[in-house]
Amino acid sequence: MSISSRTVGFKPGERNVFLHILTACNLSCRHCYINRGQHGTEMVDRLQLETWLELFADPGRRSNLILLGGEPTLHPDLPFAVRRSKELGYSVTVDTNGYLFHDFLARTSPQDLDYLSFSLDGPDAQTNDPIRGDGVFTVCTRGIARAIAAGFNVSLIYTVSEKNLDALPRMVPLLQQLGVRRWFIQVLGLRGNSAKSEGDETSRVSRRRWLETVPEVAAQAAAAGVHVIYPQVFLEQGETFECAGNVAENYFVFPNGRVYRCPLCEDYPVNALRIEEGRLLPNDGLTEDRFFALDIPEGCVMNKLLQPDTLEYDEHGRPRYRISCCLLKREIGWQGAG
């Protein structure tokens, strides 16, 4: 066997449904992207859950469903949503902060849930807890251990910021210790709380710092038997820019019925779609999808509009690099892993 490293292009017809079933959370993470003023404060009730799951289901094609919050295990009907999703043919993931409310592990099963994904932003409490809250590291790692012992497929999400980038290499032995074999390294998006705290110690890392650290740590984790996925972020010379909004189906669904096609837009009322009376309807006016076809030297047009400080230009005003679609991923791991 050998380690492979590849950019994962968008597959025609690929479908990903990110369903936020509530916006409430027991934590107040400094980089949380939830914006309750835009996303609502209500909980999707059981009847809505079933209706919305059926609305996005397509038995003829593989559809990935990610159940999110806020903290989704705060929703008492999350186990029902997991079971119903599986019946509808989805590949199902739940993203959690590790507190696993409502006895979630006992009320669902590894047969119904493809992945249980935990968010952890440091290899120890000293790194993680200033970002996510006092005591969170201990609770989350205990939750991971319980889930693995119960037979669940567990993955881990680490959101990189200036606050925790230097600690990233120390995640590799922790992943080995915990028995986690799938690791997502995420870039910090400037939305929600992180948009408000731009410029402080939780801010997004520079291109140089990202490229110096993330690919190397990903390779170390892969050598240790962990399958690593992280956003491409910066396109390499000769790589073609593609917008997922044009070539894939991605839906970011919020409790107030807003449905976005691009996650960068979620702080603004520009959602392309909405759910109304159980139907998925297009919105009129200047919505996010009007921009997807624009071809600019900087790559992602939404990044240029909403996060222009992530770009650099030479003395002639030409971009020094291009930003990829934020949904384009790089994978590194043992060949055949997934």
Structural account:
By secondary structure, the protein is of the alpha/beta class. It has one domain (3-240, 322-334): TIM Barrel. Helix content is 27%, strand content 20%. The protein contains eleven helices and 13 strands. It has helices spanning 36-39, 46-56, 78-87, 104-107, 125-132, 136-149, 171-178, 193-196, 207-223, 244-247, 301-306, and strands at residues 3-8, 15-20, 63-68, 91-96, 115-119, 154-160, 182-187, 227-231, 249-253, 258-260, 273-276, 279-282, 329-334. The chain has a 13-stranded mixed beta sheet with strand order 1-13-8-7-6-5-4-3-2-9-10-11-12. A hairpin with a 2-residue loop joins strand 11 and strand 12. Helix 2 (46-56) runs parallel beside helix 3 (78-87). The chain is globular and about 60 Å long.
